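I have been asked to look over a protein record a colleague put together. This is what I was given:
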Amino acid sequence: MSGAGTDSTRPWPEGGPVVILVEPQLGENIGSAVRAMGNFGLSRLRLVNPREGWPNPKAVTFASGADRILEGAQVFPDLRSAVADLNFIVAATARERGMQKSVLGADAVAVEAVSRTAAGETVGLLFGRERTGLYTEEVSLADVILTLPVNPAFASLNLGMAVAVVGYEWFKLTSGGALPFQQPDRYPLADKQDLLAFFDHLEHELDEALFFRSEQKKPVTIRNIRNIFHRVGLTRQDVATLHGIITALVEGRQTREARTAARLGMKPARKATSKPAEPAGGGEGDAEG
């Protein structure tokens, strides 16, 4: 989704877990991670010894308007100083490290983070370098390990993507999963009187067009047609539109007949009084709807 869905008049969420990027290599990736943070209500960023220094203009470009997070970012010379004031640390890694630590998915990490944040604890989410990820000694500083159910043959995620997945689970939980908008219910559902009038109109014109080629099959076919429209959940506006479609088709047929008759110097053809021969295999079908 693009910036078209952004509403600058709404307040930004504050608090939540601290996102810690350990020795990020490219400003573009920092900016992408910050954009994901802004999308999913994470506002606190810490950078550990970014390779290209700080501030980084490329990070601003790729943050796509999440400048307030960049402006509030804290820079630390090493990971120990970046996590010193935190109570609970989650380390994101795609590799098994041989450590006796709980391994959680992003949804379980979100549950843990919400619970601990509500209790007044400060939670940190560690993400490593783009090329190598976190070192084992850095993972050892964490309380739990975060990993994702990705393709084991290609498990490396872009830094911004990794932050987005965790941020999504966090925000979905804290917001109750509420979507930002719903399709407005502008038209009431058609009542049975509306539907019956439409069925009368449709079936009359189908009769006029010689659609029902078998009187024996006609009741079943009518039932099938009605069932199609019953499954849709038509609104009053839908029914009005369908009436208009049928009327336009009928008027178009009559106009074509009149033009043909005028061209041939004949009167417009009248409805046939005899039933046409039924083609092989039946006419309109006899399967139950």
Q: What stands out?
A: Confidence is low (pLDDT under 50) at residues 272-289. The longest strand covers residues 18-22. The two ends are 39 Å apart (CA to CA).
